[in-house]
Specification:
Blueprint lengths: L1 E2 L6 E11 L4 E3 L2 H6 L2 E4 L5 H10 L3 E2 L10 E8 L2 E7 L4 E8 L11 E4 L1 H7 L8 E3 L4 E14 L5 E2 L1 H22 L7
Antiparallel strand pairs: 1-12, 2-3, 2-11, 4-8, 4-10, 5-6, 6-7, 7-8, 8-9, 10-11
């Protein structure tokens, strides 16, 4: 079932040029930033409380997802059709991604971007310090010099996957019933 709705684009900002803890200044490519070059960090002792805090803000378990070893896997709808997906790892790393809601088949497509500031906005009243890790070098960012402005344009149409699955199951069940009914015979004496 294809849904036509007035979906809006999602806009975010990601670090472009940063100073790392070793004093080096690097410029990250746009693709690298969107793909998830940066993670947030919270001391592991706070992770259970962080998950409870996010849940109190409206996050829910993400459900079916390709696991990456995370301790918590949460999501919240930020604006139709976008959801913020947050993975919290036992090491203290926190990754965020804005993507098409998982109710749509298009969730599996490239309409997504890594995010950091949105996740921090949800937890800054719980843990007010922003720690950004540049994952390729394993070094923390001590200063963001400039940003990329990332615009995610929504898909032209959105297809709900549950009606398709339910329809497929019903067709399969009806096919089995028809098959078994075609095998009916009068018992022999």
């Amino acid at each position: 079932m294809t849904v036509s709705l007035r979906a809006v684009q999602y806009e975010t900002y990601l670090p472009r040029t940063v100073r790392l803890e070793d004093g080096s200044i690097i410029t990250v490519s746009g693709e690298e930033a969107i793909q998830g070059a940066f993670s947030l960090y919270i001391p592991p002792v706070h992770l259970d409380e962080l998950a409870r805090h996010l849940t109190s803000k409206g996050f829910e378990a993400a459900g079916v997802s390709l696991g990456k070893g995370e301790k918590y896997n949460l999501r919240i709808v930020v604006q139709e059709p976008w959801e913020l997906h947050v993975r919290i790892y036992g090491s203290g790393l926190v990754e965020g991604e804005v993507e098409v809601k998982r109710e749509y088949i298009e969730h599996l497509s490239p309409w997504r971007s890594s995010v950091i500031y949105e996740v921090f906005q949800f937890y800054q009243d719980f843990y007010p310090t922003l720690h950004i890790l540049y994952k390729p070098k394993g070094l923390y960012v001590v200063r963001v010099i400039d940003h990329y402005r990332v615009e995610l344009k929504p898909p032209e149409s959105l297809t709900l996957w549950k009606p398709i699955v339910i329809g497929g199951v019903l067709i399969g069940v009806l096919g089995l019933i028809a098959y078994f009914l075609s095998k009916l015979e009068k018992p022999g004496e």
